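Marked as duplicate of an earlier ticket. Keeping the data here for the record.
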Amino acid sequence: MLIFGLGNPGEEYLNTRHNVGFMAIDKIAERFHQKTDKSKYSSIFGEFNFKGKRHYLIKPTTYMNLSGKSVKKWMNEKKVVPEDILVIYDDIDLPLGTIRLRKEGGAGTHKGMLSIVEEIRTEKFPRLRIGINNGEKIYDLASFVLSEFTENELKIIKNTMDSIPEIIVSLLSIGIERTMTKFNRKNLAPSEQKGAAKNHKED
C-alpha cells in the first residue's frame, strides 16, 4: 500500500491545520520505527514491512495544490490500482480531532484532493479524513487552514494522532470494511473537543 499524507513542506507550516496528513505519516513511521528521510518523485518517504509486504509512507513536497503529481508518479512506478493507496488529509467539514475512513468519495473543496482526483482521474480510492474544524465561524478558508493550531487544539490533534497507527495496522490486517466499522464511530478526541462537535452533523 502507498500511504500518502498531505501537507506543505517547510517549518512555517509544521503545526498548521493543513498539515495533519504530514503529522499522521510521522506518527505511523514512529510506530514502525522508520524514518521518512528519502527523496523521490517530489516527496519524502519511508517504507516498512508488515505481514510479509512492503508499504510506503509518503509526504508529497509539491505543496498542497499539486499533490496529485507526486501521487501519480508513485502509482505509476509501483503499478498499483487506486484501491491500493490511502490518502490522509485534513477536513474542514469534520469536528476537530474526528476521523473518518472511507473507501471513496468526492474531493470537496480540498485542493490537495482535487489535484489527486485530477491526476489519477478517479475518486474511487481510500482516504482517512481528520477533522480540523474548531466550531468557530470561518471567514477565510485559506487563512484558516494555514493557521496554526492553538495549544489546546494541538493536544486534541495529538490525541487523535495516537490512534492513527492502530488504524493502519487494522487496515492492513483485516481490510477497509471492518476497519471502518471499528473506528469511524469512535470519539478519539478528549473532552475539550465536545463543544465543537455539537455544532456538526455526523456524516
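See parent ticket for discussion. Residues 191-203 have pLDDT under 50 and may be disordered.
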